[in-house]
C-alpha cells in the first residue's frame, strides 16, 4: 500500500503546535550557593534548564536535576518576564520537580496520553539549550517507548520515551509534544557516549512519559512529594564483581548494612548483614533492581522477602510503610 504524505500539512501542524505550546515554555534558572565539602569550598554559580507551565495558577514542570541543590530559583517566561519560583517538591526516581510562580501566565500546555505513542510519530522538543537559546524548537520522531536507563545509583529510570529530536544541555525539563499540541513527555537526558566504548552516539534523547509525569506531579502538588513504599534499611547493591570479591553466595541482590529502629524491616526481623535476593516472586537482578521492584508496591502492602543469612535462606513477611525506600 502506497502512503502519500503531504509535507506541507506536516509543516503547518508543526508551526501551529509551536505557536500554541511555545508561550507555556519557560527557562528555569537556579542559583547554587557557596558550599563546603571535604574537597574544599565550591563557589556559587547559576544552572539553567527548561520547564513548561501546565496550570493558569502557575504550576510549572521541570526536572529535579535542574533545581537540586539550588538556593534561589526563578523562571523566565516566553515573553521575557522573570519571576521568582517556589519549589513545591520533587521526585528523584522520575527526575521530576514542580515549581510555582505568581502572576498572569502567557500560556498553558496540557498533558496528553503517553500510552498511545507509536514509533515513528512526529514529536517536537521545545526548551532553552545553553540557557541563551531560549524556546529553541527541534523536531524528530518517537524512536521507541518503554526504554530503561541505569542511573548508576541503584535503580533504573523506567518506561522512558526515546526520541531523535535534538535534546541538548539546557533542554532538560522542557516539553516533548505531539502534533496535537499535547505534552507527551518531559525531556530529561541525552546520551552521547555508550559508557562501554569511545563511540559517540547521536539522536538518543529520552523523556519521562506524560502519564508518569501526571501521577507524580499530582502527588507533589498535594503532598510535596511522591509517596512511595518504605522498608527502612540502608543497603548496597550486589553485582557479580562485588560477589566475587567478597565471596558472597549470590551475584545479585542487596546487602543490608543498617536497619532503622521501629521500621517495617526491623519489625519483620531483617538484620544487618542480610542479603535480600527476592521480593515476592521477583528475583533481584540487573533488570529488576531493588528500588524498582520495591516501588511496584504501595504503602500498606504485605510482601515476602527472600533473605540469605549465614548460608540459610529465610522467607520474611513485611508490611510496607510510607516513605522513600
What does this structure look like?
The protein has 325 residues and is of the alpha+beta class. The protein has 2 domains: 1-32 and 45-225, Thrombin, subunit H (Beta Barrel); 228-323, Roll (Pdz3 Domain). It is 15% helix and 42% strand. The protein is built from 6 helices and 23 strands. The protein has helices at residues 7-21, 64-67, 210-223, 240-246, 264-268, 290-294; strands at residues 25-32, 35-37, 40-42, 45-53, 59-62, 72-76, 82-91, 96-100, 110-111, 122-127, 136-150, 156-163, 175-177, 182-190, 205-209, 228-230, 233-238, 253-259, 275-279, 282-283, 302-309, 312-319, 321-323. It has a 6-stranded antiparallel barrel with strand order 1-4-5-8-7-6. β6 (72-76) and β7 form a beta hairpin.
Give a brief description.
By secondary structure, the protein is α+β, with helices and mostly antiparallel strands. It contains six helices and 23 strands.
- Please give the alpha-carbon distance between the first and last residues: 52 Å
Q: If helices are DSSP runs of H or I spanning 4 or more residues, what is the number of helices?
A: 6
Instruction: Characterize the biggest β-sheet.
Output: 6 strands, antiparallel, barrel
> Based on DSSP secondary structure assignment, what is the total number of beta strands?
23
Low-confidence stretches: 36-43
Mean pLDDT: 88
In spatial order, strands of the major sheet run 1-4-5-8-7-6
Number of domains: 2
Assess the beta-strand content as a share of residues: 35-45%
Helices and strands, in order, run as HEEEEEHEEEEEEEEEEHEEHEHEEHEEE
Radius of gyration: 22 Å
Level of helix content? 10-25%
